[in-house]
Write a structure and sequence with these properties.
Elements lengths: L4 E6 L7 H15 L3 E5 L11 H7 L3 H11 L3 E6 L8 H11 L4 H4 L2 E7 L7 H13 L3 E2 L4 E3 L15 H20 L1
Parallel strand pairs: 1-2, 1-3, 3-4, 4-5, 4-6
């Protein structure tokens, strides 16, 4: 099989985002496992807040079409989500909602994996649950291992890798599940 292509995206575009750091650390794991990685920055796919009147007048934003193309070109996609008030953030939900207006191949074709970074000890588990639900509803296969990184001040080392062996081992398990699912599909 040719080298699998893995897209990784953060549901926060904040400069110092910990979910961006989670994406970067997970990207190291996939690179070490032999995958080709593509960091997908949602700042490059700016979309207005979904509104049906806007859609009737203007159609689906070009950015949604571009992101769909990018995701369909990936064999696997890892999404790192922040948690806002127990939910996934509006940026991620809005992006998913706009893309769903076009079709669902971007969800059903790649294999998905999810993670979350949050400052608290619970590591965004409520946002993970929501993200898992919406991906399943849209036809995505999501690998069983999820990557929750809590108390994130200590999560990453100076090179942007996971500082803690247990988290690195969990990320490796997630990557292995995804790469195995890709090779079976
Ligand atoms: C509106 C808002 C609500 C938040 N609610 C939660 C929450 O429910 N659980 C949690 O663990 N962190 C919560 N946080 C803290 C975020 O986890 C924290 O700001 C985190 O750094 C955001 O992710 P980022 O660093 O990738 O931008 C909230 C932050 C904001 C701005």
């Amino acid at each position: 099989m040719s080298q699998p292509r893995i897209g990784l995206l953060s549901g926060s575009t904040r400069k110092a985002s910990m979910n961006r750091k989670l994406v970067a650390a997970t990207a190291h794991i996939f690179t070490d496992a032999g995958a080709k990685i593509d960091i997908i920055d949602l700042s490059d796919y700016d979309m207005p807040l979904y509104n049906g009147d806007y859609e009737d007048e203007n159609g689906v934003p070009d950015a949604a079409h571009h992101l769909i193309k990018t995701l369909i070109a990936c064999d696997g996609v890892f999404i790192a989500t922040p948690e806002y008030n127990g939910c996934m953030p509006p940026l991620l939900k809005n992006t998913i909602d706009w893309m769903s207006r076009v079709g669902l191949e971007q969800f059903s074709r790649p294999i998905y994996a999810i993670g979350a970074a949050s400052p608290g000890p619970l590591s965004g588990i409520m946002a993970l649950r929501q993200l898992h639900f919406i991906l399943a509803r849209l036809g995505a296969h999501t690998v069983p291992t999820q990557l929750g990184v809590g108390s994130y001040g200590k999560a990453f080392d100076d090179e942007g890798r996971f500082a803690d062996e247990r988290t690195a081992a969990r990320a490796t398990k997630l990557a292995t599940q995804m790469l195995n699912a890709i090779s079976r599909s």
